[in-house]
Amino acid sequence: MNILFATSEVAPFSKTGGLADVSYALPKALSQLGHHSIVVSPAYRIIRQAGLPLESLDIEVKCPVGRKTVTAGVLKSHIPGTDVPAYFIDQPEYYDRPGLYRDQGSEYADNCERFVFFCRAAMQLIETCKLTVDVLHCNDWQTGLIPAYLQCEYRQRCGYEHLVSIMTIHNMAYQGQFWHWDMLLTGLDWEYFNWRQMEFWGNLNLLKTGLTFADAVTAVSPRYAKEIQSQPMGCGLEDVLQTRRKDTTGIINGVDYSIWNPETDPHLATNFDASNWQAGKAACKTAVQRELHLVESPQTPLLGFIGRLADQKGLDLLADVMQKRATQWDVQWALLGTGEPRYQQLLTELAAEHPGKIGLSLAFSDALAHRIEAGIDMFLMPSRFEPCGLNQLYSLKYGSLPVVRATGGLADTVCDANEATVAAGTANGFSFLDYEPSELEQTLARAVAMYRDQPETWQQIVGNAMHQDWSWHTSARQYVDLYERTIAAHTRATQ
Ligand code: ADP
Questions:
Q1: Is the distance from the beta carbon of residue 364 to the nearest atom of ligand 1 less than 6 Å?
Q2: Mutation test of ligand 1: which of 364, 373, 396 has the most ligand atoms closer than 8 Å to its C-beta?
Q3: 161 CB less than 6 Å from ligand 1?
Q4: Which of 127, 160, 313, 392 falls between 20 and 30 A from 73, CA-CA?
Q5: Nearest CA to ligand 1 atom 27
Q6: Whose alpha carbon is nearest atom 18 of ligand 1?
Q7: Ligand 1 binding pocket mutation candidate from 46, 101, 308, 360 (most atoms within 8 A of CB)
């Protein structure tokens, strides 16, 4: 099968979050299963910093955007370590900017135009480069127009009749909503601007567009696929999801263990695996304590957080517990994140009040993220909502037990340690249900007590966590099944 994977970010070229990791790892896993994937993404300024070869193709894509015709070049590279081609739409006015979607805290004012063009260009690329494609796999609002272009324009053309589109929701909270006049940029007929298709409370909604026109919809975990069919997780689109529930599947993201594996990770002070993790993690812990200016104390539980500093990630709960307990509890915190200025300020103040106990880096550093994963004892993810979450999966592999709120993908992957789950050998972390600071506090207290007072149980749970297999293998197969089912349904419907 031939899959065109359209995405607004792809690691290691461009990344703001988990979507970039998925865009790297899923096409690679599909290719390992014998399928042909092609990745298409914008040529942001940052892609050149990845240090990977980029060939400038001697072709142009020309697309209408409103009344204009916009031209772009095409750069070609490969997903590192694979034969998966990556095409980058090189339109400097739109993409040669400091950020992917925003700069200095504000969204780019022309984001609608930038991604209308990207969707048009991705479709045009098929024709220009004579690509063989069976499935258009679209991701999040930035690619939401592709299923609409397929259905409303391309399927009437020779050679496109058989194509199907899949719309994957990585995060329902980001929908690409723009004022109604941006409909003119899309070039689609106003007849589609109605509450069943592209319109949402008077605005143009690009995620809704994708969900409406795609042949099948996926969310990045089974639990999240259910949660978004009602409020508040549906973020206003719950009715759309309910209408499409027969075509909606939840497929959990996987981990690329060639990148996230403590046995081979080049960023670590010492490599380790499930057989020698105690010594390995101890060395990595000392290294992280040193790097983040924490007191170098092997016995003190080290709790980590890595992620976007956004409401979604439960930072208010985390800050609340740190404010209350940082002095009393003998624990340390290793925090890495970038995001909302108010959270940056809050964490900066907390770190300043508790030197040696709270280590903070307000940077985007992949290498430090790896070192924190390896050196901490517990990973904190008290998310308000979490479509899948990747860091808890990395943490499992690195023997850093996740402490999570049981929502979305966190509920699907973390099994709370209690008497029954410990006895059954299924416990791999700690979780709580209600989004309350007290719940996080109690769950953390429980985890810290087990770390201190029941070392054998702790070791057993770390063993459970490290032995679990969350690789892409299973999930990629589920996507292949979905592609096949969708193609078969489309063929039946058009015969
Ligand atoms: P989301 O996609 O909601 O941001 P995920 O847990 O699915 O959350 O994925 C986040 C990814 O981004 C992980 O690979 C995580 O390590 C990475 N990440 C987030 N913030 C940072 C940061 N400041 N430095 C390095 N990596 C980060």
A1: yes
A2: 364
A3: no
A4: 160
A5: 307
A6: 307
A7: 308
pLDDT per residue as tens digits for the range 70-89: 999 999 999 999 999 999 99
Could you tell me if the CB of 252 is within 6 A of ligand 1? Answer: no
Band (pLDDT 50/70/90 cuts) for residue 495 is: confident
User: Which domains does the chain show, CATH number per domain?
Assistant: 2-254+473-494 (3.40.50.2000), 277-469 (3.40.50.2000)
HEC profile for the chain? Answer: CEEEEECCCCCCCCCCCHHHHHHHHHHHHHHHCCCEEEEEEECCHHHHHHCCCCEEEEEEEEEEECCEEEEEEEEEEECCCCCCEEEEEECHHHHCCCCCCEECCEECCCHHHHHHHHHHHHHHHHHHCCCCCCEEEEECHHHCHHHHHHHHCHHHCCCCCCCEEEEEECCCCCCCEECHHHHHHHCCCHHHCCCCCCEECCEEEHHHHHHHHCCEEEECCHHHHHHCCCCCCCCCCHHHHHHCHHHEEECCCCECCCCCCCCCCCCCCCCCCCCCHHHHHHHHHHHHHHHCCCCCCCCCCEEEEEEEECHHHCHHHHHHHHHHHCCCCCCEEEEEEEECHHHHHHHHHHHHHCCCCEEEECCCCHHHHHHHHHHCCEEEECCCCCCCCCHHHHHHHCCCEEEEECCHHHHHHCCECCHHHHHHCCCCEEEECCCCHHHHHHHHHHHHHHHHHCHHHHHHHHHHHHHCCCEHHHHHHHHHHHHHHHHHHHHHHHC
The pLDDT tens digits for 192-232 are 999 999 999 999 999 999 999 999 999 999 999 999 999 99
* pTM of the full structure: 0.93
User: Ligand 1: which residue has its CA nearest to atom 24?
Assistant: 364
Q: From the CB of 12, is ligand 1 less than 6 Å away?
A: no
